[in-house]
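User: Show me a protein chain along with its predicted structure.
Assistant: Here is one chain, sequence first, then structure tokens.
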Amino acid sequence: MKFNNKKKNKPTGLIITISVLIILLVGAGAFVLADQFFTNEKETVETNDKTETVEKAEQEQKNDNNATEKAEDNNEKQDIVEETFIDIQISAVGDVMAHTNQLVAARNNPEGAYNFESVFDDVKPYIENADLALANLETTLAGESIEYSGYPLFNAPDALADALLYAGFDTIVTANNHSLDTRAEGLRRTAEVIEEKGMDAVGTYKSASESDQRFLIKDVKGIKVAIMGYTEHLNGLDSQYSAEEIDSMVNTIDEEQMTTDIEAIKAQNPDIIVAYMHWGEEYTRDPNTVQKKNAEFLASQGVDIIFGSHPHVIHEAEYIKSEANETFVSYSMGNFVSNQRTETLGEGMAPTEDGVIVNVDVEKNEQTGETRVKNVSFVPTWVYRHSDTNSAPYTYKILPIEKALEDENVSEKYKERMKKSYQETVDRINMPSSNSKE
């Protein structure tokens, strides 16, 4: 029995041993699997964390880039500021004369009062269109206590100043060879009347104290314009006065004085400088060497625009280039209105009937302050004089030629004269009808 029992116990031990080994192997395998599982899980978590970190970093970089781009865009928008400009038109005409027959015509009305306004009716729209309009008044306004007269010593009624205001002029140049026709009293009263009417006088002075500033400064729609006026001649009447007295009454062309005046102007920081010069020789068709020299001098000093009068005929216009500037100059704009013509001066004097409105377009950059002459254009005019009796009183009108040629009320005889006048003006100016600097 015992044998039998012993024989039976032997396989049981083996089975137990094998079972233990199996359990150990299974446990080890489970541990390995568990370890692998947790390792993989850890790696997955770490990978996910790394991915999230990378993604977060990438997003932050993207946000930074977007912010940088946005800032750059804003900077570019600040850098690229839209430029804005101020534009004005400066218009100028030549000599406004008051010959005896013109005085007679101005009083030829039922009231018997002097009235020159109808003379300017046809050009009024052109002058009113300007932001600044200048004319040379080649007569004095000494008052009725001194007899009204034409050539050689001019004295016109104050009504002529009324007519200039009516036409649209705001600045009247009074420095010319007839400034002293009614002596110092007439010179001073002329400037006084012009200013009383609401216009500015430049070139002569109401009083000696006014001559301390020998120019005008005008704000024209935000553009600061300086205006000077000078004369080359005083018809010898200046010999009755001392140099100091003349200097306190009227601006005469003198390089030293003009240099001083321009320096004083520049101290006031104008945007543009205009000089109106009464110079040259009467009835000559071209500027002389003195005119050219003075124009070049003014250009070298920084003057931007030069208007000229006195010859009573039209001269060329041009640009003068200097180190300091590029200057537009119209050497002579002819007669705006007078009694000078073929009928009074003879053959070959038809050009004295011709005038021109010179329009200068000026542009200012509001951001930089840079101001320049942008464009120049010309409106040729002709002085119409008519009487059914071919004697005084006549009717005087300043006609813009292009428009007048379309007027059915103007006779063919006068239209033929205007056509010749127009061509003469265009040829003489020797510039296109519109000269753009763009």
